[in-house]
Predict the structure.
Amino acid sequence: QVQLVESGGALVQTGGSLRLSCVANGFAASTYDMRWYRQSPGKEREFVAHIFKSNGGTYSADSVKGRFTISRDSHRNAVILQMNRLKPEDTAVYYCNAKLWRDYWGQGTQVTVSS
């Protein structure tokens, strides 16, 4: 059964750091492109970061570039989002995404950045 399980969300002060994890069950995460998205109350879900299956290359949204890093943890079959220099506008539920034969999403993990 394909499943994505996010964790690591928390309440943190402006300027702080968090490390989000997305553990994949039922498939090898390293063989698929993986993405992080986020959604704030009243807003549409927005793209955050992407990691390619082919060469591990990455790209991210302009709003997080230079602060957030996406990577893989092959031992845990997981994708990591390291978030540094957090801002209040980063407050959102963060979701992991994998596109297999269809889109799969995790349940999300809440990140709250206090000012």
